[in-house]
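Listing 4. Sequential folding, example run.
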Amino acid sequence: MKKLQIILTCLISAMNFANINLPAIFTDNMVLQRNAEVVIWGNANPKEEITLTADFLDKEYKVTAGNNATFKFKIPTGKEGGPYTIKLKGYNEVLLKNIMLGEVWLVSGQSNMEMSAAWGIKDGDGEVAKANYPNIRFFSVPKLSSEFSQNNLFGNWQVCTPETMKYFSAVGYFFAERLQNELKNVPVGIICSAWGGSAAELWTPKEVFSQKPELLENYKKLGNSEYYPTLIGGAYNAMIYPINQFKTKGILWYQGETNAGNPEGYSTLLSSMIESWRKAKADVLPFYIVQIAGYTGWGDTTVRIQNAQRVVSETVPDSGLVVTSDLDKTDDIHPKNKKPVGIRMANLILKNIYKKDLGLVESPKVKSVEYKGRKAFITYDFAEGLHFKNKESKLFEVSDKDGKFFHAVAEIKGNQVIISAKEVSNPVAVRYAWSNIAQSDLYNKADLPASAYTSEKLK
């Protein structure tokens, strides 16, 4: 009987010891941000001492779990390399294998970011067949929504193979492929947290709307959808918040088609969302935006979203814009030509973040507009080799103070486009490519198109 009591006591004591549990973002095959201080966190028994060792570290790290049953390590990563192992030991032992140190990027948005080769992208079969990159790793965040901030999610890191690439974000993959090739095989980890059809409000923390109630009123005008939840901040709480502590180099954003249902306030919404994400991560991360492509219908709402994205990229620090209006026809809200999108994004990042000398990788960008007599002088940055694709442009408009726009004759002189219309004697505003279906005809020598533009101050 005494022996049985001892056994039962030991079993009860063992049950009181909580195993080390790590969030799903920490699995075999993951990439940790190189040359950084990264956080590894999890759950364990209160007062449990936990040690962490890794073959890229020169010492053992120890922490004691708090009374809330959580622990956190901050460790340096050093230069790129791998594969490595990480071992955590407390009452149990957790071993993470095939870990790489490299560059980690978060990609997010709606269906055009989520879209994989399996959806039928251009040249998809050929791209899938050659997608053997053991030092590119993927983590796909599943679709989840919550009223409250969550501590964990589901998923695991996967090595890039034809089988895994086929179902991963195509833009994310092509971005990673270009990045790794130019960075001389530095490992690249891409975390994709995207939801087809989702409005930006789902990705924005709820407190933003308390501070800016007009954004909530704008959102109400969008209505409901059968494809995504309508809970403000729901996707942020369940698909972004759980990985906020995971160190990343930056964020890529491809979203806006759904908000074309009511574009009012989108620039304020997007800039507020960026600010809130950076605050939550305690890091002013680079935030780069893919401008949505043109799409038939909805009045001028698509171009208003495009313009809002341009405004945000020009006013929010450490941000940038990829223009895509030239890549596909405007009869498909899911453009199939994803490879140039990823490459253009990678080229901007390589030049601006990694300081690679790639020459001209930016689209022409309006620097200033001046009015002299009947003419408007639009000066562009990144304007080397500025030219019209079809010898002339029919996409410029000009208006006087009554706000009515007229088609303008346009000519290029150096880094300027000079426009005028016989109906306008005293121009006060200009527009370019102001249509949902306009495909840019103004390019620089890198064959990159100019964004849709208006000098008007839109909400």
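-- end of first protein; second protein begins --
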Amino acid sequence: MQTGMHTDTERCVRAVQSKDARFDGWFFTAVLTTRIYCRPSCPVVPPKPGNMTFYPSAAACQQAGFRACKRCRPDTSPGSPEWNRRADLTARAMRLIADGVVDREGVPGLAGRLGYSTRQVERQLLAELGAGPLALARAQRAQTARLLIETSPLPMADIAFAAGFSSIRTFNDTVREVYALAPSELRTRAPRNRPAVTVPGALTLRLPFRTPLNPDNLFGHLAATAVPGVEEWKDGAYRRTLRLPYGHGIVALTPTPDHIACRLTLSDLRDLTVAISRCRRLLDLDADPTAVDDQLRADPLLAPLVDKAPGRRVPRTVDEAEFAVRAVLGQQVSTAAARTHAARLVTAHGDPVDDPEGGLTHLFPSTGALAAVDPETLAMPRTRRTTFTTLVAHLADGSLNLGVESDWAETRARLLALPGFGPWTADVIAMRALGDPDAFVPTDLGIRRAAAELGLPSTPAALTARAAAWRPWRAYAVQYLWATDDHPINFLPV
């Protein structure tokens, strides 16, 4: 699997004929005779190869006049792994579009965040994805609209507004064009066995992923490091508060064998698209576990770890600035101590929220609120206070950007230039906040201990040299190495 796979006709035809779900989201099959487009794993009888053409995005299919298949529902495929493993212009643009930037700020806002002209961004996206930013955002709006139509009792006018459409007419026209059904018909055809909503105002939906997915370290890490008031593990679900562009939200995420069950409560429905995007990013749901595991399995010392529990993901974050602050709070202290430091900040400076289920109390403090904190009130060594105050000042004034559009190498260099930031802190932030799949922490005590037990080099320099063969998936190798320990981060809570 690689960039531009849709141009490899022979390989795409083989994937479609074998109904290989691993390729869902990598490309889309448009059928010339029926004028519909499908995911590779569509359950219907595959069309003749001469009647297939392939596109890199749903938006490109829609622009070419194809409608979404009603059987395989290609709009519900996992996202392409490309956008979370690359740091070039196209990948950064796609991460921003998924985060709703085009809907909120328009194409000029997207281009401004990327540091390119509008024309350059449009030309690059059109060349690689067959659609410009407006078409890609429109396809995302259509997908959000369908999700709300089928999973919520909201009136159509509210759905149009929540999905980002400027008018009811545009909403109706887009849904008809993309799905060949009116919004009311989509609702009528929706499955009747939807899960009951136990929390008033909550939206219940399914987040797809490519199998396998090992939930142990993914949810174990989030639960073991949960900050009281902001996060909790309850009734088999990881729950947390979300700071969003138009308001706030609370999400509950529950692992199941074939999807992640997601329950969202939002103060403003316009935040639905970005909330879903951030939850997918948190759980690394667009990863390609086959590509990752195949490469790591090639190392004979890692192979038994991969074979024992394949499909490990990198636990990430819903808020990059929050994670960076928490990484500093966790320097040279235990997981429990880091949680205590963070909980004090939350109680003193976080924004209170109402949780219908009662367990969550605050949003994590904004960078503006943290920049105003009196350093003398922080129960930590003076040098770490300096690290903390310098970080939040740079985050608050915008001179340090950790958003999804950030360039990984450049941002890591900026972090290392801050007082108190060594390679461990910068690389942990690169791995879990920036989303760099190749971030590596050879100085981490747990990694060095695991390396020694497995017979890998245990000194940072020698281990880094050995890990060159794991690139570009060293962040995933970290998860397998950490999992050799009996720390709570590696286990689903009971």
